[in-house]
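Researcher: Here's my situation. A collaborator sent me these components and asked whether they could plausibly form a single complex. I don't have experimental data yet, so a predicted model of the whole assembly would be a useful starting point for our discussion.
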Amino acid sequence: MSPRPLITSSWPATRIFSRHISRVQSSQPPFPTTPSCPSPKCACAETPVLPGGLHINYSQPLNGTMAPYAEQVVICTSQMDWKSRIEDENDGDNLAADLKELLGRGGMYRDVRLCSLSYVKSFYIL
Amino acid sequence: MNSGRNWSLIYVILQPYHNVSIINASFPPSVPQRAEVQTSSAYLFPSFKYIPYLPRVSFDSVQALVKGYLLPTKLNPAHDSLSPIHRDRLLRSKEYQSLLYGVRDVEDIVVLICGHGGRDGRCGTLGPVIQEEFKKALPREGIEVLQGPVPIRHQNGGNTGYLAGVASEKPTARTGLISHIGGHQFAGNIIIYIPKKAKTSAGETHPLAGCGIWYGRVEPKHVEGIVNRTILAGEIIEDLFRGGIMQDGEILRTAGNAVRVL
């Protein structure tokens, strides 16, 4: 499913308020963290060279780049790779296409997202 | 901050609305009892459910999956103006769960690695290398990496269970390549789902039990550290952390110098 830009970190309000919201929610103890990944002790594979012209973004902070979701459906396909749009696999006859038909844009259960989105938007404008 | 009331209002509005992420994985589906029936299998996270059989012959099983497991259990207050019939249509209904056979809890550590080369060369190049690294690093720490379809024991009464010997005290993991989850520029992208009953290597309750942790900019050299710090010790590695989700759907972010519920 495509990311929802309004709720990711690209939405300024999320960034501005997230720290304050965390304070409001501080009854939950924070999770144990470690600042960075320890160096490996065992031999490991070299990082492969990326195809021409493709780069990794090392400048943008990673925190907040996960688009929030309520549930993730992980479909077992036995394949190691897929078409760019997974719903196009097998000429459109696949479970991902069926689920997106019901839950995606224009689907009979889509209202959940559309209504909420307009709700957020109206607040943001106010 | 001028009043607590305003902030609580903002909190309600920033609650993520009900978004369902649908991705493909390289895991093989469970083998149905009648081999001629074409079925799919699917994992649900953070519900930590495995649905072994979704017959492809009809749309009924897809409807049962959506109505029984994917729709929200309560609606956003924005839906208060809808008619009761309309609201019911958008809510989860437990009766549909019984239409799906053999559903069970996920008890393996599940490591998902974006390897969607058909969409972007970065994850397509890095994903398989990172997966191989996990397959080597996990057994070194005593975690068995399971391969092949999830076995389902078929019983006469229609109930299902594990094959004998599968449910053991030793932690087990499955690693799979997955399709696009957003953020190819942050490849390698991985998601680690820690099962609800997980323990740390010290035998204590795992701090991340029932959580999904998203990491980005992962390279093969990070895999050993991820296994040790996050999978075994339950610590979130801050400089790889993209976000996370708890079992009840709450979203985790880095806030200040700690990781908290958003």
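Model: Some features of this prediction you could bring to your collaborator: Strands of chain A lie at 33-34, 71-76. Residues 1-22+69-126 of chain A form one domain.
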